[in-house]
Amino acid sequence: MLDMARLRAAKENLPNVTFMPGDAQTHHFPAAAFTVAISRAGVMFFADPVAAFANIGRALEPGGRLAFVCHGNTTANPVFEALRDAGVTLDLAADTPGVPGFTDPGHVRRILTEAGFRSTAAIAFEVHSTITATAADAAKFLLDGNLRALVQKADDDTLNRTRAALETALRPFAATGAVTLPAAGWLHTATWIG
Q1: Strand 174-175 relative to strand 34-40: parallel, antiparallel, unpaired?
Q2: What's 39's domain CATH number?
Q3: Cα 65 from Cα 181, distance rounded (Å)
Q4: What is the rounded (10 degree) CA torsion for 114, 115, 120, 125?
Q5: Measured at the alpha carbon of residue 82, what is the angle toward residues 73 and 74, in degrees to the nearest 5?
Q6: Dihedral sign, Cα of residue 158, residue 164, residue 167, residue 170
Q7: How far is CA 10 from the centre of its chain?
Q8: In the prediction, which pLDDT does 97 show?
Q9: What mean pLDDT is reported for the chain?
């Protein structure tokens, strides 16, 4: 991923961009070194989101801005509908790491405020999200990634049933070599008070 990002930055002639591996929850960023922190669906999986956002905040100068997107309402999402139809009990409690808690803008606002941010805002949006080439690949990708926390306690039978249900649910969205799903999201912004 980092190699691909470096290639794209070079192709776009962006010499002032640096790429490095790290966990934003614990990485030792230089203090007050940045004016903005941006994430595209990458902040939903922190083990301790308050600590993670506080760590990110300390890397921002006072008045620095945070902006990130995360998933929105799960009830109209064909992926979550397929999981429910397969009999997977969805733990959508706000304190569950992953997608569920971040679908509630009030919960996110509390996390950001506790971490030291102010002027929080959440704007709902809808997009079409492209996952991967086939319905089977997309089901595997989702179960191995974004949905892993929701199915990690499932027995093998439930997991196989879930994979099959997901693949069936995703098939109508697979066209022209990709699975494209309707998706709802939130754009969150906040200001670091320093």
Answers
A1: unpaired
A2: 3.40.50.150
A3: 30
A4: -110
A5: 5
A6: negative
A7: 26
A8: 59
A9: 87
The C-alpha atoms of residue 148 and residue 82 are separated, in whole angstroms, by: 15
What span, in angstroms and rounded, lies between the C-alpha atoms of 189 and 187?
A: 7
Instruction: Residue 133: give the domain boundaries.
Output: 2-192
CA atoms within 13 A on the CB side of 150: 27
Where does residue 24 rank: exposed (0-12), middle (13-18), buried (19+ CB within 10 A)?
Answer: middle
Residue linked to tokens 């993670």: 52
Q: Are 87 and 167 in contact (CB under 8 A)?
A: no
Which two structure tokens, joined as six digits, stand for 64?
Answer: 């620095």
In this structure, what token pair is assigned to residue 76?
A: 């109209």
Count: domains in the chain:
1
Cα–Cα distance between 72 and 143 in angstroms, integer? 18
Residue type at position 117: F
pLDDT at 74 over 70: no
Nearest-angstrom CA–CA distance, 111 and 49 = 7
Q: What is the pLDDT of residue 90?
A: 61
Place of tokens 């990458």: 42
pLDDT at 117: 98
Amino acid at 194: G
0.85 exceeded by pTM: no
